[in-house]
Amino acid sequence: MRINMKATYVVLGLVLLLTACSSGEDTTWDPAEVDAIVSTDPSAVKAGVEVKLIAQMTGIPDKKGADMQFDIIIDGKSNLSGSHEEGEGVYSLLFIFPRPDIYDVYLHYYLEGEHITKLKRIEVL
User: Fold this and answer.
1) CA 94, 71, 28 angle in degrees (round to 5)?
2) In order along the chain (125 residues), what is the average pLDDT of each group of 10 residues?
3) Which string of b and e fits 33-55 if b means at least 16 CB within 10 Å?
4) In 76-97, which positions are buried (b, 16+ CB within 10 angstroms) versus exposed (e)?
């Protein structure tokens, strides 16, 4: 009987500890609702000139602790680069495209153990 009583107290203590550590906020979100809006600065991208790629993630209520990588495909090869977090789900990267083309840019977004990938295209003049 003593062992059962000790086990009961241990379980009860763990439940109280987990409840106390919970923020109480609903952080659930649906990865299917996530989208990305991509823009560039300057808006007209020219080959050989540095451009700022800007990605804004939408459909996610709390973006704290997230990470984003830009994956720019050049000649069929991946060029994975970390981004600068600007806050509120906005990420940026300075990049120089080598020549005029339409480039596939994959956005890899990581949050709460989820990995979401979005494909965007950038036209370079």
Assistant:
1) 105
2) 54 49 54 89 97 92 83 96 89 97 96 90 98
3) ebebeeebeeeebeeeeebebbb
4) eeeeeeebeeeeebbbbbebeb
Homologous superfamily of 31-124 in CATH?
Macroglobulin (MG2) domain (2.60.40.1930)
Question: What beta strand segments (E) does the chain contain?
Answer: 35-41, 50-58, 67-74, 77-82, 84-87, 90-96, 101-111, 114-124
Q: What is the pLDDT of residue 8?
A: 54
* 77 Cβ neighbours under 8 A, 6+ residues apart: none
Helix (H) or strand (E) holding 13: helix 2-21
Q: Which amino acid, 53?
A: L
Tell me what pLDDT residue 68 has.
Answer: 92
